[in-house]
Target: tRNA modification GTPase MnmE
Amino acid sequence: MIDNQTICAVSTPLGHSGIGIVRLSGPQAVAIADRLITTSDGRPLAHQPDRRLVVGRVLDGVSLVDEVLVSVMRAPHSYTTEDVVEINCHGGIIAVRRTLELALQNGARLAEPGEFTRRAFLGGRIDLAQAEAVADLISAKTEAGLRAAASQLRGKLSERILGLRNRLADCLAHLEATIDFPEDEVPQLEGGSLSARLQQIKLEIEELLQNARGGVLYRDGVSTVIVGKPNVGKSSILNAILSEPRAIVTEEPGTTRDVIVESVNLRGIALRLCDTAGIREPGCTIERLGVERSEQAIDEADLVLFVIDSANAPTAEDQRIIAKLREKPHVIVVANKADLKPDADLDPLGAHLPGRRIIRTSATAGDGIEELEQAIFDEVTEGAAIAPEEILVTRLRHRAALETARAGLENALRAQKDRLSVEFVALDVREALDSLGEIVGAVVTDELLDRIFGEFCIGK
Ligand SMILES: Nc1nc2c(ncn2[C@@H]2O[C@H](COP(=O)(O)OP(=O)(O)OP(=O)(O)O)[C@@H](O)[C@H]2O)c(=O)[nH]1
Ligand SMILES: [Mg+2]
Model:
């Protein structure tokens, strides 16, 4: 909960930069800043106008620390809803750190990660989904991720959730009235029967869940691993997707020894692409370690690109990898070196990997790479076909809450159909209502807040 202390942190990365900002928030923010800053016109910050930049000097006793620009944003019209002071120092480590230390010596305490935004939430300026959007905006990996975060910060998701909650609350009020009064004395629900209304809300939650599939992708990206036996062209495929010679390619099997990780923006989705050492019976210790890492990378990946040499028949090494891929939900087979044997019969291979897409490529000629990218996109979006501008739900936390809400409504509808007593129906509707409340923070615990804001950087 909000304590009464004034918090303080450096809000910009420490290092060589044009400016570095020290930020204070809390009831003593202005008084503390006044103890370390002398403004150019001599008037204390307490008497300076709101939200204007003022020139001043940070003084450590009599010695000058920095010439600064200071702004005061008074409660409640500030980021945190409290009094906020921002001190724009010259960038660099020493002046910024000294200014922070002076603020601490004068009564502020160091802010926890995300504590400024936590105060904005506790002060009621933004809800929890919007607070999470602040973190997502900072860590967005693609423009699509950024747009989704910005729309969530503007309250698009919250609006939808609040609308659903209001309608569910009406249903619950109706149910509770029928518990307390005989049914014929309770006024009819507007907009259809109770079950029709619950059904409709459930449908809209399902739409949001459908949307979440794409949203989680745009926010978190996809961890993708390129595997195969040595020399099939894994590194060449990596280079072709990146359009740059990132990994060393040679005709010698066993060229790649360690996992190489690169990020690429594939149609708005952040792909974390790992090239690995070819998997075979290892000859030496280095190779054994490389193969172990490749196998571990398969375990951790969301998507596997399994590269084979389409010019040569599958070998025992291919079979060994195929066995490892059986459990993975998302696998694309890349039949590389198609230039060497364009009409290679891939059916026998397909029989070992039922249901997997097979794409023929020639990494050296660049053929099939676009088809491969399309296949990757289709595989990870599972045909959800979500335009980035329509993304509403991007966090797993929100998805889980929506799933609980849907289950609650399913139970409520079943209880009603089975003519169970109204109390049971009401209980399930209440559960759905609370789950939706968790998304916007109408229902929270300190533990949840610690988890969410712990992911933030200090100073935000
Ligand atoms: N003809 C042809 N040669 C290819 C193709 N892709 C890769 N090669 C060649 O195959 C050899 C091996 O390529 P790499 O990309 O190093 O293969 P790798 O799977 O990463 O090999 P390791 O790292 O040793 O496991 C190189 O000589 C490449 O030029 C292709 O599509 N067609
Ligand atoms: Mg390689």
Summary: The chain has 15 helices and 13 strands. The two ends are 17 Å apart (CA to CA). The mean pLDDT is 91. The first strand starts at residue 7 and ends at 10.
